[in-house]
């Protein structure tokens, strides 16, 4: 039987919470596809578990088999019934980059840096230390200073700077060097024993770029901004993975290529057998 691991970002990729309209029926067609027994579904998000569950309820999202949360620092298995199971092996693997230290311990070494303010406790976890910073912060010099201080502790970090445009609020996640959406997806692919070609990733923004330009088949939805689209194309060109990147443009199934419609378009591009599963008539009586 055909099999597929569908790994997708949530906000503004599967969840239509951007300025563009969502094509009617797009999410329903995606739900039909993921109901196919050959499809394994993984959500890949910056959200933590509770916020993923909130989104699933608010937007009627299909129940996933796995959730990669907190920007790749947690992997959850989500059984059909019963509680979510946290992947301790993954957390041990990335924890080695921090020499076993927790986010709280690292926070003490950084708290005097000008402009850095800790985000609320529910945005922190053992391997994710999240700060607010001014929208105009000098991020290159901040990054140098943070790397220097933490390297002295034997801690290897990945710094992810972003901007909450609605609030002109700078954001910084301090993560173990190996913790990322891409590495977490690769760990999942290895665990499931799935061929790289039998996966597809869907995303929309800068924090998806590492996966979009990787060797994994990947879809950029049409509501992505022009600069993100350009960065994805340039990055894939430089990495030699242009054939593994599909930028949705609309027209497939008469839809606009944004959000779930773009996912469908790109998934069908890489895996043509899926179109029948998307468009199958509901079989329920
Ligand atoms: Mg997104």
Q: What this model shows, in words?
A:
The structure is a single chain. It contains ten helices and twelve strands. By secondary structure, the chain is an alpha/beta fold. The protein folds into two domains: 4-73 and 179-279, Rossmann fold (3-Layer(aba) Sandwich), CATH 3.40.50.1000; 99-176, Hypothetical Protein Ta0175, Chain: A, domain 2, CATH 3.90.1070.10. Strand 4 (74-77) and strand 5 (85-86) form a beta hairpin. Helix 1 (26-34) packs across helix 9 (259-270). The two termini are 25 Å apart. Residues 9, 11-13, 204-205 line the site of magnesium ion.
Write the topology of this structure.
Layout: E1 4-8, H1 26-34, E2 39-44, H2 49-58, E3 66-69, E4 74-77, E5 85-86, H3 88-95, H4 103-110, E6 117-118, E7 129-134, H5 139-151, E8 157-164, E9 169-176, H6 181-192, E10 199-203, H7 209-212, E11 218-220, H8 226-239, E12 245-247, H9 259-270, H10 274-279
Parallel strand pairs: 1-2, 1-10, 2-3, 10-11, 11-12
Antiparallel strand pairs: 3-4, 4-5, 6-7, 7-9, 8-9
Helix pairs in contact: 1-9
This protein binds magnesium ion.
């Amino acid at each position: 039987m055909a099999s597929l691991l569908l790994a997708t970002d949530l906000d503004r990729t599967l969840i239509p919470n951007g300025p563009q309209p969502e094509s009617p029926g797009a999410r329903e067609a995606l739900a039909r596809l993921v109901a196919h027994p050959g499809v394994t579904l993984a959500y890949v998000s910056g959200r933590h578990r509770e916020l993923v569950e909130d989104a699933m309820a608010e937007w009627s999202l299909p129940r996933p088999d796995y959730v990669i949360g907190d920007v790749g620092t947690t992997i959850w298995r989500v059984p059909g019934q019963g509680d979510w199971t946290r992947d301790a092996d993954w957390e041990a693997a990335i924890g080695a980059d921090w020499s076993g230290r927790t986010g709280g311990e690292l926070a003490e070494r950084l708290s005097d840096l000008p402009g850095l303010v800790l985000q609320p406790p529910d945005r922190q976890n053992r391997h994710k230390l999240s700060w607010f910073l001014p929208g105009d912060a000098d991020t290159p010099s901040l990054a140098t200073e943070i790397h220097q201080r933490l390297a002295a502790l034997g801690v290897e970090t990945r710094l992810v700077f972003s901007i909450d445009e609605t609030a002109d609020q700078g954001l910084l996640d301090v993560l173990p060097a190996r913790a990322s959406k891409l590495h977490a997806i690769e760990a999942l692919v290895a665990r499931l024993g799935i061929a790289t070609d039998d996966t597809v990733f869907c995303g929309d923004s800068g924090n998806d770029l590492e996966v979009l330009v990787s060797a994994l088949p990947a879809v950029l939805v049409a509501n992505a901004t022009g600069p993100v689209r350009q960065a994805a194309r340039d990055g894939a060109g430089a990495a030699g993975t242009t054939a593994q990147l599909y930028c949705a443009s609309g027209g497939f199934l008469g839809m606009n290529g944004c959000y779930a419609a773009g996912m469908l378009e790109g998934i069908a591009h890489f895996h043509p057998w899926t179109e029948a599963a998307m468009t199958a008539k509901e079989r329920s009586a």
